[in-house]
Amino acid sequence: MLISEGGLDIHNGETIGLCAESHCKFLGPLSFPGSVDAFLRVAHLGSSSVRYELALFDGETGEPAAVGWFVHVFVDAETRRPSEITAQMRALFERLQVA
User: What is the distance between the alpha carbons of residues 48 and 81, in angstroms, rounded to a whole number?
Assistant: First the structure.
């Protein structure tokens, strides 16, 4: 999404995204070839960072399997100093943001 719609170029762009924090809590098993329902939302949108929250559920039973979060910090590719989230990326995040 960030690459295809947000204009993020991880190889040649001036800004890159780094994982500042991640967490996953196991709640129950999932197994192949079963289906998985995955949900993603933006819980916090700052000037240079975004916190995603995720939940995985068993596609057949609806039982929760895992919940977690991931903090993405956008930085200058050269200096690694925080970089403002672009308007194009911010618009994508706002679509996933929960009030």
Answer: 10
From the number of C-beta atoms within 10 Å of its C-beta (0-12, 13-18, 19+), residue 80 rates as exposed
Total domains in the fold of the chain: 1
- Coil, strand or helix at 12: coil
Taking alpha carbons only, the member of 73, 56, 53, 77 closest to residue 65 is: 56
Does 10 fall in a domain?
no
Q: 31-40 — which CB contacts under 8 Å span 24+ positions?
A: 34/58, 34/59, 34/60, 35/59, 35/60, 36/65, 37/62, 40/96
Q: Is residue 4 part of a domain?
A: no
> What confidence tens digit (pLDDT) does each residue in 6-49 have?
777 777 889 999 999 999 999 999 999 999 999 999 999 999 99
Cβ within 8 Å of residue 32, ≥6 positions away: none
Place of tokens 């993405």: 72
